[in-house]
Amino acid sequence: MIKQINHNQAFLSRKATRATEADTQAVTDLVDTLKANTNRAVGLAANMIGVNKRIIAIQLGVLSIPMINPEITKRSDPYEATEGCLSLEGQRTTTRYKTIEVTYQDQSFKPHTQTFKDFTAQIIQHEVDHTKGILI
Asked: Is 80 a catalytic residue?
């Protein structure tokens, strides 16, 4: 189900709790909401749709990929990036890393470890920050 984008900074600033298999509807809702906003978003975190769980979704071309309980385990090559956010007005500068390694679970809760680079890595870092209550 497509959900409204949350703009409540107090809620968005809370650290998310670990997602479980009981949260599969939230995963579906997050992917549906990202697909509905592909004209203006490349990623979403569950707290952006009012669910305080560690779930993100990223848009890679036509694919919307959910990541459950993502953790960035390695980072390299820092740089300054200017980013916007659907939940916040304007753009802000932050430090990102060109290459990251992420552990996460897929929609079936199977574990994965994967390396991401460049813009995809930047999207994931932004959304993982959301799960930590970090707003850029």
From this structure: no
The β-bridge relationship of strands 55-60 and 63-85 is: antiparallel
DSSP run (H or E) holding 30: helix 24-36
Q: Where are the domains of the chain?
A: 9-131
**What is the model's pLDDT at position 136?**
83
The CATH number of 9-131 is: 3.90.45.10
Question: Looking at 21, 71, 101, 127, which residue is catalytic?
Answer: 127
d(CA 3, CA 99): 31
Tell me phi and psi for residue 122, to 5 degrees: -65, -45
In contact, 119 and 79? CB cutoff 8 Å: no
> Rounded distance, CA 115 to CA 99, Å?
7
In the chain, which stretches have pLDDT less than 50? Answer: none
- How far is Cα 86 from Cα 130, in angstroms, rounded to an integer? 12
